[in-house]
Amino acid sequence: MKPLEIKLNREFTKLQEELEDYWFDEGNDKISNFVDKIARENLFKIQNIRQEIEKVCKSQNFTIKKCNELIYEFSYIVNEFGKYLSRDNSKGFTKDLIESTMGESKSIIDEIKILIATTYYANLQKLANKMDCRTYQTIGRITFILNTVTDEIMNPYKKLINDEINRVENILHDKAYEIEKIETKNKDNKSNVKKIFDYKKMDRLIKDYGFEEVRQSGDHKIYSNGEKSIPVPQHELEKGLSFKIQKQIS
């Protein structure tokens, strides 16, 4: 080999070792820290929305509108995080990961590029081709490190996120069942309501349900079954009042 060829080859070997050493040591730590930070932040966002959904579904002031807003927010965060992680997204996670972890390896890569260009211009084509090949091999090893470390840290978080998705699905399933039961009960109650406007007929109906007259207050008879008391006016009943009394006794 010519003296220049020996010199350029030694410089390249040194830079190649520095680049690989960086990614096996400091770069590895930076990958771990970045992936953990991104995964943790998104997991916490998803957990917080799940907790809000759970709170709303258990609330006495539950509204479908508020629940739907939270479901949309939950789905949006989950879907956007999935898009961000996709390797098809050229402006997503992979881009941010590389930019955040490059560190001093960027300047080493720039030096390697200059060295390969210098080798070409020095008409050392064979050596330049060899440098290109070794550079691609190094990039392959770095890519393997990136993917391996990323998967080791990200996969447990992905499992936790899937657990949160399953929790939300179960919460919504239980709430839907609860709403269905209430609606069915209300429907049954409405179908059982009779058109009773005669207070004497109402007195007989309430007794049929196990209520007994305990006292009279003014023009109202007070009936009780030992758990609750229901006043029944002793005059013609309006439709709304008749419905209310029947709901109380059923």
UniProtKB/TrEMBL annotation:
It comes from the Bacteria. One of its GO terms (molecular function) is endonuclease activity. Pfam families: HicA_toxin. Keywords: Endonuclease, Hydrolase, Nuclease, RNA-binding, Stress response, Toxin-antitoxin system. Belongs to the HicA mRNA interferase family. This is Type II toxin-antitoxin system HicA family toxin. It comes from Clostridium botulinum (strain Langeland / NCTC 10281 / Type F). The lineage of its organism: Bacteria, Bacillati, Bacillota, Clostridia, Eubacteriales.
